[in-house]
Amino acid sequence: MNMGWRKAGSTLEKPFVKNEIVMSTEDLPGVPARTQGKVKMVNGFTWRRYWVFFENGVKLGTLDSDQLVRPRDWNRFQSVKTERETASVAVAAASVATAAAESGGDGVAAAVSGGDDDSPAAKLRALVPPHLLERSASARARLGA
Fold this sequence. Notes:
This protein is an alpha+beta fold. Helix content is 38%, strand content 18%.
């Protein structure tokens, strides 16, 4: 889900209204992204939800405004989405580089980066920050395990 793309520089000046043409911003059940539809009902006071009848015959309710976009705003939505994905990848790469530098190349970073892909615990190790793996390794060494 592309939550919050409108929060920074929103193009949603006003909520969608009944009979307005919208597009889905993501794949929804039975509705691929960028499918057009018409808002048939708006409900909610603090959290607006929409019933939309899509061109492919699927009718969905309780759609959030982040799941819909006006056709004229599609290009802006895509550019904001691309910028956020690029920033996310950059942050992830920076954190991996920082973790590798902090580990000092003693093998902990290799275990985290997938050096042992055949191990059943490789996916779990990839989720654990390197500094915690290092702390655990030093504790085992200290205790003689």
